[in-house]
Amino acid sequence: MLPVVQVIFSIAAHRAGVKQVTGIDISENMVEIGKKKVGDLHLADAIELKTGDCEHMEFATRDVRCGDGGFSVCVNFEHLELGLQEMYRVLKTGGKVIILEFSMPEHFPMKQLYRFLFLSYSSDDRGDGFQGIKEPILICPNR
Predict the structure, then answer these.
(1) Rounded CA gap, 21 and 109, in Å?
(2) DSSP-derived secondary structure for 110-137
(3) Which pLDDT score, from 0 to 100, does residue 54 have?
(4) How far apart are CA 22 and CA 64, in angstroms?
(5) Rounded to an integer, what distance in angstroms lies between the CA atom of residue 40 and that of residue 35?
(6) In terms of CB atoms within 10 Å, which end of the chain has fewer, N or C?
(7) CA atoms within 13 A on the CB side of 86
(8) Euclidean distance between CA atoms 64 and 96, whole angstroms
(9) What pLDDT, in 10s, does the model give residues 97-130?
(10) Other Cβ atoms within 10 Å of 83 Cβ, number
(11) Quick one: pLDDT at residue 2?
């Protein structure tokens, strides 16, 4: 949950006036990478990143104004419905959840163009940061 996109969301929220941003990820390695990025920008006092399970968050019910999940939510949540229910549980009334997910276009010609350009480019053996993006597109194409 904390690759570059979530750190960017956290920085954007902070710059938009959110006083405290908390990001969680089940991977200690991703949290450490995120902490380095936040530290490099001198935002560690405003953005807290910690290890946690998004399907069982430690936040109180209706405690969060805004939540986000980016790229591979449908793959990285072991139980997608549980993860989404947990996001809803912690969300304050009137709060927003933003889920940024790749999906497969349904109509010609975009479907064919997208499949050719994006899926052929995002080979898992390239080592260019696109690893893991192809799987969610194929698993949850129309969500």
Answers:
(1) 40
(2) HHHHHIIIIIHH--TTS-SS-TTTHHHH
(3) 84
(4) 10
(5) 8
(6) C
(7) 18
(8) 9
(9) 887 776 677 788 888 887 777 666 555 555 544 5
(10) 21
(11) 45
- What are the distances in angstroms from CA 133 to CA 41, 85, 114? 27, 24, 13
Query: Residue 34 is encoded by which pair of tokens?
Result: 């995120």
Residue owning tokens 């990001």: 23
Query: Are the CB atoms for 34 and 2 separated by under 8 Å?
Result: yes
The residue written with tokens 């949540």 in the block is 77
Q: What is the pLDDT of residue 37?
A: 87
Gyration radius from the chain CA atoms = 16
Below-70 pLDDT ranges, the chain: 1-6, 70-72, 74-75, 102-103, 118-143
Inter-residue contact 11 to 41 (CB < 8 Å)? yes
With contact defined as beta carbons under 8 Å apart, do 2 and 28 qualify? no
Residue at token pair 């050719």 = 116
